[in-house]
Amino acid sequence: MSDPVNSRSETVDERASALLADAVRAAHRSGPGTGVTLADLVEPERNRLSEVERTAIRRMFAGLVDSIEGEIRTRLLTGAGLPDMAEFTASLGAAHVAIAWPILARAGFPEDGELADLLERRGKSYSIIRQLRRNAVTDENGRLDMLVQHGDRDIAAHAMKLLIAESRINERFDDPRLGRNDLPDLVDQRLVWTVAAALRDYGERVHRLDGAVLDGPITNVACRMLEDRGDEAPVDAAAMSLAAKLNDAGLIDDRLLAEALNGARPIFYAAMLAVRAGISFEMAWDMAIMPDAPNHMLVLKSIGVEREAASQLLVAMLHAVLVEDRKADEVAADWIETYDVLRPDDIEAAMRPWRLDPVYRSAIARLAVADGGASR
């Protein structure tokens, strides 16, 4: 008869090995180039998202298109060069009438995987924030709230920038938003030109105007908009900047991580994981929210979070991601017992693919699939 203690130890070791193997496979599945399109995100029959996520994504995408369209229309009406046609001018002045969104929906949304990835991440972020707030445990005099008054002026300034960025996306009032400043430069350029082209199409198709006549004023306006884009950092970039300052000062600890997650600030939480683990924000985010593999636990272990704190963080995030509390507790219980047996060398090996450039890693995965092999 075998020793039950040894049998139990073997079971934990086997689960630890499975955890590490899952983490490596998940790394190769994560990152850009996953195939999601803008149409997938806004059409319910074509996506795998929850209703909350899909609704949030559609509102953010439509709101972004509407805001760009509104600025182009305003600039066209107040500028010079428009053809002398009262009906077209009146249409541009009817702010309550959407022009670009219906055209894009009819003609097909542009193929922009980078924008689709961003919208999908923000939709998931919105859903997670809503769930975290259900059980939020915040300290009004907590360290996070006091960062804007920190004695280090650099830290205080970056903390204020993050608060401004968080208020801009306005998730706190159940109204998720995405602005041009939240987009990478090239994504912003592509979307501005796409909306500009939609207005040109409207002028040609509905008002029978010569597209060549519209090209001048429309392209001039679009160019000025791109030149006038502000320098406000996207919320994830602002979070990363503050996290880097805090990490340099040795201020990121288990308590601060718990305060960020319990306070329903998962973007800042992921940023702190990222700088501590030496990975990108996108990779830290993916590791923290994956429900099918304990990658969240792996990154916590890699940065030295204590077992009890790691258990609390894992449970809190799983409750937000899986929604079903009982299922979340079961998943957490299945894996947390392996926390203490994970060896540093094995952790480092499992973290290695997460530290690769995401485009490089995605290319490796695509080539492996094309060759009929498995990612290593």
Account of the protein in words:
Helix 3 packs across helix 6. This protein folds into two domains: 144 residues, no CATH class; 179 residues, no CATH class. The protein is elongated, with a radius of gyration of 24 Å. 38% of the residues are buried. Helices cover 69% and strands 0% of the residues. The chain has 376 residues and is mainly alpha-helical. The two termini are 39 Å apart.
Task: Provide tags for this entry.
376 residues, mainly alpha, disordered N terminus
Give the low-confidence spans. Answer: 1-9
Number of strands: 0
How would you sum up the global shape? Answer: elongated
Q: Profile the largest sheet.
A: none
Distance between the termini: 39 Å
Alpha-carbon Rg, integer = 24 Å
What percent strand? Answer: under 5%
Q: Please bin the fraction of helical residues.
A: 55-70%
Question: DSSP helix count?
Answer: 19
- Encode the helix/strand succession as letters: HHHHHHHHHHHHHHHHHHH
- Estimate the mean pLDDT confidence: 84
Number of domains: 2
**Protein structure class:** mainly alpha
Summary, kept brief:
This protein has 376 residues and is mainly α. It is 69% helix and 0% strand.
Topology, element by element:
Blueprint (H helix, E strand, L loop, with lengths): L3 H26 L8 H5 L8 H28 L7 H8 L6 H8 L5 H22 L8 H4 L6 H17 L15 H23 L3 H17 L7 H14 L5 H9 L3 H12 L3 H9 L5 H8 L4 H16 L2 H12 L7 H8 L6 H13 L6
